[in-house]
Amino acid sequence: MERAGAWFLQSGIQGKNGGTARYYRSDSAAYARISTEITGYACGAFLYLYDRSGDRACRDAAVRAAHFLIEKAWDAKLALFPFEVPAKGEPPCQLAYFFDTGIVARGFLQVWRATGDRRFLDSAVAAGHSMISTFLRGGEIHPMVSLPEKRPLPFEPRWSAAPGCYQLKAALAWHELHEQTADEAFLDAWEDCLDRSLRSHESFLPGAADREKIMDRLHAYCYFLEGLLSCLDRQPCARALAAGIDRVSHFVREIAPVFERSDVYAQLLRLRLLAAGAGVAALSRPFAEREAAALESFQIHSTDPRLHGGFHFGRKPEGFLPHVSPVASGFAVQALELWREHAEGPVAFDWHDLV
User: CATH: 3.30.450.20, 1.50.10.10, 3.40.50.1000, 1.25.40.10. Which one for 2-353?
Assistant: First the structure.
């Protein structure tokens, strides 16, 4: 956790303005563009690190990320967050995603709870309304719209370009916003997404013949399972989570010799621990031990601060892929810390803090 915290703070993955790059490539020594989604995730990751370490620099970094999203990323004219924030002199981004907006809204809510600054709650509310007005049309959550006209794009076979159960994690923003505002529009949108996800999730996997693409879909399916953590008092949600963990575990073991993703290991390990803590599914210790060990092997040890402490995104038989991912790193830190806490006793965790 200390190494990962140093990587988040010192690697350059977060710029001085608070925006966070999608990843760093070790082969080309280059950062990807600043992503609104990843900056939203960074809010939660920094705050989790602050909560566990007490390092004030992590809290400051989370606040800096949230300010960036408000001041640099939010398009007030269109009332939405674009997919990426172009560098000075680059053309404006022409895409916006439902999922990204939900992650940003949840990041605002996490920073608001940590600081009490009403501006962050107001920004989360604005993002939540944008999710409804921009993406919820004709009874369907459209994953992408083109900018500036905000026109829903045709669905495509890849999971991120089509509606699906994975959208439930982003829709958690609606759930949380209803808790804070009592706005029934947020509750209605959340309940509709939950109902739709429960009815459709069984057809999401495998969803492809290529095993690498199935691994990618496991990452998305875990988003659905993470969304269920907020409603485990409902039997359909608890049953879907328990069964889903088993399905993901099966595919991970089957595909690992060909392709492994650190974020999938982290998501699966978190889900196992939190489901066990909630009494929804017994913990399979042998599987959890293997997943934790595999996840630890993705953390980088290097003299280069752009790499040291971060987590590789993926691995194939020929070696690690060059991407060092802040999302994978944030998920991994939380999963491994929960695993450490589990060894010391029952895990107490609030789903609102899920990165």
Answer: 1.50.10.10
